[in-house]
Amino acid sequence: MTAVITDEKIPNNVDLSSDRRLQRALEAWQPKFIDWWKEMGPVGWQERDIYLRTAVSVETEGWAHFDYVKMPDYRWGIFLEPKQEGRVHHFGDHMGQPVWDEVPGEFRNLLRRLVVTQGDTEPASVEQQRNLGATAPSLYDLRNLFQVNVEEGRHLWAMVYLLHTYFGRDGREEAEELLMRRSGDADKPRILGAFNEPTSHWLSFFMFTMFTDRDGKYQLAALAESGFDPLARTCRFMLTEEAHHMFVGESGIQRVAKRAAELMKSGNGDVRAQGGVDLPTIQKYLNLWYTLSLDLFGGEVSSNAADAFASGLKGRYKEDRYPEHKLIGSTFAMDVLRDGKVVHEDVPMRNALNEVLRTEYIKDCQRGVDRWNKTLKDEGVDFVFVLPSHKFHRQIGMWAGHYFTPAGEQIDAATWAARSGEWLPNAADETYVKSLMNPVFQPGKMASWIAPPIKGINGLPETFEYVKP
Ligand SMILES: [Fe+2]
Ligand SMILES: [Fe+2]
């Protein structure tokens, strides 16, 4: 185990060549992955030179190397953070005991489900985004899309490594199935709802990377606490890459909002008439992708969440910040439904852990939205983006099947049917946004609906040719 990544067929820092059986199994999976990438990865662009970063080390500084690469030649590999000697369980029932280097038999199924569910999201997002290259608003954005895509492919490798190494035949079968499911396919859908939703234009792509990749950050961070040490070490390095995905989303929407604000102050102030995305439409897509992403945290009261914590497999976000790590006898105060009415109640803490993680996520989303609002304020525009209530438009958990306004007020089904088009993108919004999606492929040029980035990639100017013709 070294920080530096080897230059083998499968780049890795896990001394893969010392385990011939595992190496052969992964080398047999590799061409299937490439086939999947060519079939379900980005449409077109595969033979182009793209200015991408590739992981070359797991050191905090200098872990990435930037250069032109054709996507199918990207160095997908297996990178774990170095093992910390003497690491012990720091939460749950096994607190103080040494962490596990092998899968404990009694938690095998639970752990496999955690790994497969995380793993499934990675190829799913590549599939969801595969057509976006044709309508990129700039070469800078096109390159960012592909950077996110190749790294999601690498995240799939990270989970497949765990499946192959620690779960025997079941694990190898799961690894095959990760390449068989298809986002949005009625017969073999991806596991989680938001990963079957179409990401049919760049506004949705930016919202996805802002909100859905941020769910990924929180799930990975919770798994990075795991007492199953290989999972913890894998997830810690994935988080390094994940930060860029959220940057793409947050800065992307910030640029769309800035452009809208500029257009509000020019001509007759009609943003749509001048080829922009008006702020109320941006708010609707925020409402959609934020709530789809809230669903990914699972049910509010969950025995699975309690089991994952008790067994030491999944912690809280930055577990060390909390004063107490067993959570026996403590409670979490949260809104719940009782006989169709919302009441505030204390829920046993272990059962509330999905909601605890979701609450941390919501705070993080709010910080991003605050930065968007600062942009609007700096532009002198009187509009504020708002995160809707966590009860609004939910399809998983106790709020599913009940109706709430974005402000969190309970309403009946008829009111919802009459008003949901004011809060969520309707067919006309979708048609309008799609009508803006005309590609701009000249270096340094931007589509009408988005402001240029504040700076380029890796210190390069925004006029750099991030994708070669
Ligand atoms: Fe990922
Ligand atoms: Fe991501």
Keywords for this entry:
single chain, 469 residues, two-stranded antiparallel ribbon, binds fe (ii) ion
Give your account of this protein's structure.
With 469 residues, the protein is mainly alpha-helical. It is built from 11 helices and 6 strands. The chain has a two-stranded antiparallel sheet. The chain has a two-stranded antiparallel sheet with strand order 3-4. The chain has a two-stranded antiparallel sheet with strand order 5-6. The longest helix is centred in the middle third of the chain and has 36 residues. The structure holds fe (ii) ion (FE2) (2 copies). The site of one fe (ii) ion has 5 residues, from helix 3. The site of one fe (ii) ion (FE2) has 5 residues, from helix 3.
Summary of the model, kept short:
This protein has helices at 20-40, 108-128, 139-166, 168-178, 202-223, 229-264, 279-295, 303-310, 353-378, 413-423, 427-435; strands spanning 50-55, 64-69, 331-338, 341-348, 403-404, 410-411.
The beta-strand count equals: 6
Bound molecules: fe (ii) ion
Report the helical percentage: 40-55%
Q: Tally the helices.
A: 11
- Strand percentage: 5-15%
Given as residue ranges, the uncertain stretches (5+ residues, pLDDT < 50) are: none
Give the N-to-C terminal Cα separation: 40 Å
* Shape field: globular
User: So what's the oligomer here?
Assistant: single chain
Mean pLDDT over the residues = 95
What topology does this entry show?
Layout (H helix, E strand, L loop, with lengths): L19 H21 L9 E6 L8 E6 L38 H21 L10 H28 L1 H11 L23 H22 L5 H36 L14 H17 L7 H8 L20 E8 L2 E8 L4 H26 L24 E2 L5 E2 L1 H11 L3 H9 L34
Antiparallel strand pairs: 1-2, 3-4, 5-6
Helix pairs in contact: 1-3, 2-3, 2-4, 3-4, 3-6, 5-6, 5-7, 5-9, 6-9
This protein binds fe (ii) ion (2 copies).
